[in-house]
């Protein structure tokens, strides 16, 4: 949990990788449960082989509010923390990509997504 605390304090995304049963989910869940709910909004997403990029976008949009004409974010004064379990699960398409992961990559690299 020290690494999670450090990375979130400098507002960096964290990706935990490891074998099955190495307590990645339990450690992350315990850390997220220890956060102050007055300052943090936690969104848990579980990916499966049927998860689509639209599912991910709708989930994110349901947890943010409109701030300006084209800007969305969590409730003012709060930070949205997204926990994704089984991130490798979405189906690979004919081009070799996993669209939900590609959407997350766009969100992290560009700082936002386009309206569909």
* Class inferred from helices and paired strands: alpha+beta
How would you describe the shape? globular
The N- to C-terminal Cα distance equals 37 Å
Instruction: Give start-end ranges of low-pLDDT stretches.
Output: none
Instruction: Please give the radius of gyration in angstroms.
Output: 15 Å
Please give the count of helices. 4
What value does the average pLDDT take? Answer: 92
Total beta strand runs:
4
Strand content: 15-25%
Order of helices and strands: HHEHEEEH
Q: Biggest sheet: strands side by side, in what order?
A: 1-4
Largest sheet: 2 strands, parallel
Say what oligomer this is. single chain
Characterise this structure:
The chain is of the alpha+beta class. Helices cover 35% and strands 18% of the residues. A two-stranded parallel ribbon has the order 1-4. Strands 2-3 form a two-stranded antiparallel sheet. Strand 2 and strand 3 form a beta hairpin. The relative contact order is 0.16.
Question: Which properties best describe this structure?
Answer:
116 residues; alpha+beta; two-stranded antiparallel sheet; 35% helix
Q: In summary, what is this structure?
A:
This protein has 116 residues and is an alpha+beta fold. The protein has 4 helices and 4 strands; from the N terminus they run ααβαβββα.
């Amino acid at each position: 949990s020290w690494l999670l605390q450090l990375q979130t304090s400098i507002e960096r995304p964290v990706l935990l990788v490891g074998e099955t049963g190495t307590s990645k989910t339990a450690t992350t869940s315990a850390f997220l449960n220890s956060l102050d709910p007055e300052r943090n909004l936690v969104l848990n997403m579980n990916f499966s082989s049927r998860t689509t990029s639209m599912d991910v976008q709708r989930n994110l949009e349901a947890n943010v509010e409109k701030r300006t004409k084209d800007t969305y974010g969590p409730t003012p004064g709060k930070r949205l923390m997204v926990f994704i379990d089984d991130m490798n699960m979405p189906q690979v398409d004919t081009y070799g990509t996993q669209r939900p992961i590609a959407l997350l990559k766009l969100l992290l690299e560009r700082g936002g997504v386009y309206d569909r």
